[in-house]
Amino acid sequence: MSLKLGAEKEGGIMHRTMTLDVLVIIEGEIEIHLDSGEKKVVKAGDSIAQRAAMHKWANVTPNNGWARWVVFMQAAANAIHTYIESVVKEEARSLAGLSALHYIRREIYTDRLLGTP
């Protein structure tokens, strides 16, 4: 995927895909916005994993640069169940001080280790 400077993917609208996504940033800098209000900048060489997360992307590359990344997507069996569960767990996470991005990564790695779909 490519995104010119200042552009937002999906017209800047928060969206969700019922997939497990692994993104590898090839060039530039991308800011991910989550529905929790959390924002994170990922740069060339970084990767991020998310499962059925509400999000949007913005290119924040300096010097009018493009942002390019590769996305590997797989259908997320139980994605809707995961979403409902994540809404309930969001309150617990905020009380525990865990960020949404940390939780997403931990959940994916846990699923991978346990072999859950």
TrEMBL record:
CDD domains the record matches: cupin_BLL6423-like
Highest taxon of source: Eukaryota
SUPFAM superfamilies recorded: RmlC-like cupins
Record's protein name: Uncharacterized protein
UniProt organism field: Karstenula rhodostoma CBS 690.94
Lineage of producing organism: Eukaryota, Fungi, Dikarya, Ascomycota, Pezizomycotina
